[in-house]
Specification:
Structural class: alpha/beta
Distance between the termini: 17 Å
Largest sheet: 7 strands, parallel
Shape: globular
Strand order of the largest sheet: 2-3-1-4-5-6-7
Number of helices: 12
């Protein structure tokens, strides 16, 4: 028996040591540094880890400036927004196939941006005429990549709906500025393209009849209309003369899903309450976001409510691809109803009442969808409380418990083998006495 115990001790030693070594490694998510964790267990300081050296992309060009030059820099890191949204897990259910998304912005570089190859087509240029083939500002290219960009070799970044199709509609001048009339024409062009999701990535301070009618026609055609909740991207550029207080359009129009931006920890963007803004209905990542740009395969960083809207538009494409019978109102309702924190009130000024959760938006069971389509008023109610819980990525504690459990299982297996094998060999693998150890002693 002493020999068996000695063998077991020798076997247990390495297993216990391995378990002890593994436990500290599971105490925090991979890549985490000390500090606040985001809502899904991701480090709250990931914004500093994407790649601070990437050039920034702006919504407008300053007067007289040349077109945005291509970026010569790339980052192999998975962007924090992609991890925050749980894109890899959402893609197990849907990748947006069969859904067309229109991005009404500054156009798109459809020929020289590899991430957009085969995924983005040029729509109408409602300002200069013709078909969109380029993007002097680069902002529309960036947004299109966030919606449906494909992975490039050596780069982990990808659009939230990589199998969706994007139609790039230009409703701005060369510098990225627009008017309510141009915006109305852009929305009509997006609707005519057959897009079921329309991301109006621009904001204006007024809504004349043409703009109201264009949005109403898009909704009547079954499209989900997404728009930034603030105008600060344009107020800080060459359109600063429009700065002031009050709502922005089309975000403030009935049925439009107004979106605000949040940072890596789910906190509202510090600039979210500045300038003109409309009360948002949903929030999404929009701080130091990494994405493709014009001119080549380089990457940029950008931010703002229009960037957050691109993630919402892409997620809407995932939902519509997975639930193709939903109406536009039902898709918008599902995004709001399944948002993280929906019904608990906005976390701070400038933020929506919930943060976009693609996995839950795809997997939740909403009883009202099996009865009758929600009315416009019902679509804003926090009835999502009855939806299935979100499938949040495992937290640090879950990782630790999983590792400890595995280590204990290995330890028990080793102990079993160390005790049973020697006894079996001594008996020639014959069954022991019927009475067990006590009988053997007799």
């Amino acid at each position: 028996m002493r020999s068996s115990r000695s063998s077991a001790s020798r076997a247990l030693g390495p297993a216990v040591l391995a378990a002890l070594l593994l436990i500290p490694a599971a105490a925090a998510p991979a890549g985490a540094a000390p500090g606040k964790l985001g809502r899904s267990g991701y480090p709250g300081n990931l914004v500093n880890e994407d790649s601070p050296s990437l050039p920034g992309i702006r919504a407008t060009l300053a007067d007289g400036r040349p077109c945005t030059a291509k970026s010569a820099k790339r980052s192999a890191r998975t962007p924090w927004a992609q991890s925050f949204l749980g894109a890899d897990r959402a893609w197990e259910l849907s990748r947006g196939a069969g859904v067309k998304v229109a991005v009404v912005s500054t156009g798109a570089d459809t020929r020289r941006a590899p991430a957009l190859d085969g995924r983005v087509a040029g729509g109408r240029d409602v300002v200069a005429g013709g078909t969109v083939r380029d993007d002097c500002v680069g902002y529309g290219t960036f947004l299109a990549g966030l919606v449906a960009g494909g992975r490039q070799e050596g780069i982990a970044a990808a659009g939230v709906a990589p199998e969706a199709q994007v139609v790039a509609v230009r409703a701005t001048d060369r510098e990225g500025l627009t008017t309510p009339e141009a915006l109305a024409e852009g929305i009509r062009a997006a609707t005519a393209s057959g897009a079921r999701i329309i991301h109006v990535a621009l904001a204006v301070p007024s809504a004349p009849r043409k703009l109201k009618e264009a949005v109403a026609a898009a909704r009547k055609a079954g499209a989900v209309v997404v728009a930034p909740a603030s105008a600060r991207e344009w107020e800080s550029g060459s359109g600063a003369s429009n700065a002031g207080s009050g709502p922005v359009y089309p975000a403030a129009l009935p049925g439009v899903l107004a979106v605000s931006s949040v940072g890596p920890g789910g906190e509202p963007d510090a600039q979210g309450a500045e300038g003109r803004r409309t009360r948002p209905g949903l929030s999404a990542p929009g701080v130091s976001v990494t994405g493709p740009g014009p001119g080549g395969g380089g990457q940029f960083t950008g931010g703002g409510d229009a960037v957050a809207g691109a993630f919402v538009a892409g997620t809407a494409a995932l939902v519509l691809s997975y639930h193709p019978r939903l109406s536009g109102e039902q898709v918008a309702h599902r995004l709001e109803a399944t948002a993280y924190g929906a019904g608990a009130g906005a976390p701070g000024p400038g933020a929506g009442p919930g943060v976009l959760d693609p996995v839950r938006a795809l997997s939740a069971v909403l009883p009202e969808e099996h009865a009758s389509p929600p009315s416009p008023s019902d679509a804003r109610r926090p009835s999502a409380a009855r939806a299935v819980p979100p499938l949040d990525p495992p937290t640090a504690r879950d990782h630790a418990l999983a590792v400890v459990g595995g280590a204990v299982a290995v330890t028990l297996l080793v102990a079993f083998l160390a005790f049973v094998l020697p006894r079996g060999r001594r008996r020639g693998w014959r069954a022991g006495p019927a009475g067990g150890p006590a009988a053997a002693a007799d």
